[in-house]
Amino acid sequence: MQIVIASGKGGTGKTTVASNLAFVLSGKYDVTLADCDVEEPNLGIFFPCNPEVQTVQVEVPEVLIDRCVLCGTCGDFCRFGALAVLKERVLFFQNLCHSCEGCFRICPSDALQKKLVRVGEILTCRLSDSLVLVTGRLDEGDIRTTTIIRSVRKKVSPDPVVIIDSPPGTACPFIETVDETNLCVLVTEPTPFGLHDLSVAVNVLRVLRIRCLVVINRSDGNDELIEQYCTENELPVLMCIPFDFKLLNAQNTGKLISREDKEWYLRFSELGEKIMKYAREDL
Amino acid sequence: MAINKSMMVCIPSRGPTIEAKMDDRFGRAGFFAFFDSESGLVEVLENNYAGGSGGVGTKVVQFLIQKDVNVLIAPRLGGNADEALRSTGIKVIIQDPDISVQEAYNEWKKSSENNLS
């Protein structure tokens, strides 16, 4: 069972919801918490640990200059402009390469060989008997966000209950994170910007045929904007997180509110049970 | 640079004629004007890579190589295009894009003739 916590808009509280949700659910289930926000993973802040580290590598082309006849086929083929065939040599731009492997197939002279390069890492920590944290981390300056996300998702795919913290936005990294999961919980805030990005995410999830649920964060009690949209689109609103100093203080000191505070533990447990009920319906 | 042989000069253009303003982009320029310095012939071609999702700079550099370009007059270049151009031997002249393609070419021609004499 794979449940994604996403938002569209950044900074609405995905990580807050994902971390607390995974913590409370681990009281009852074997939970894996996966950080797919690989450009800026931060679940580790709430769960400090000494992780086991695995390197993520991809294959890129290396030109065998004694075989290359400078025909230009690979340069024409590469839609990302990663190979530039000049008069005397071929230039390779690693930061443009998407590792699609097409150039290896298209080269008529068999002049490209595969070379492994590192693009990031996966950090795994066992936090308790029933909670594991798996974090994907893309190397700074690299562009292969989706490669790392795919590696994280592959690693956690056999696990029984997986809570996935999604990257913000609704482009490729989000789609790679959410595709073929069971359920997506969208964390939003009652602002026009929050509503706009929520609706974009909902539209993407419709195309992918993934059920979505909504959590409103930073609620000041005037959430009509979001509530009206959710009613019109038949989206269940599962929880409303108000402005709260206890929550704020816990967050700002890297503490998990549901571990610190009984009341918040119960609130997130209630959210967890609702989500699990919807997730079972999908299976 | 002295004109001791025929030179192919390329200038990114906003329109399909040399009266158009220079395009301030390189990889995503709308058109490219190619001037043959010896014959005086000019050809303006649409940039088929302009709408690409990424890596258009290096694509255009390969296109310029196919067109046997010797000199590129452009307002600015992206990092990848710049790196590729450095390896090609194409001379890059940075030019403020506030003038037409024809004017940019004339300025280049005048200064190269001055250098010759």
Kindly report the oligomeric state of this protein. Answer: heterodimer
How many runs of DSSP E, i.e. beta strands of chain A? 11
CA-based shape of chain A? elongated
Largest sheet of chain B: 5 strands, mixed
Describe the structure.
The complex is a heterodimer of chains A (283) and B (117). By secondary structure, chain A is an alpha/beta fold. Chain A has helices spanning 14-25, 73-77, 102-106, 145-156, 172-178, 192-207, 224-232, 245-252, 257-260, 262-282, and strands at 2-6, 31-35, 52-63, 83-85, 90-92, 112-128, 131-138, 161-165, 183-188, 211-219, 237-242. Chain A has two domains: 2-56 and 120-282, 3-Layer(aba) Sandwich (Rossmann fold); 65-110, Alpha-Beta Plaits (2-Layer Sandwich). Chain A has ten helices and eleven strands. In chain A, strands 3-6-7-2-8-1-9-10-11 form a nine-stranded mixed sheet, sandwiched between helices. In chain A, helix 1 (14-25) packs across helix 10 (262-282) and helix 4 (145-156) runs parallel beside helix 5. The longest helix of chain A has 21 residues, at 262-282. Chain B has a single domain (8-116), classed as Nucleotidyltransferase, domain 5 (2-Layer Sandwich). Chain B has a five-stranded mixed sheet with strand order 3-2-1-4-5, with helices on one face. In chain B, strand 2 (31-36) and strand 3 (42-46) form a beta hairpin. Chain B is globular and about 45 Å long. The model of chain B has no long low-confidence stretch (mean pLDDT 91).
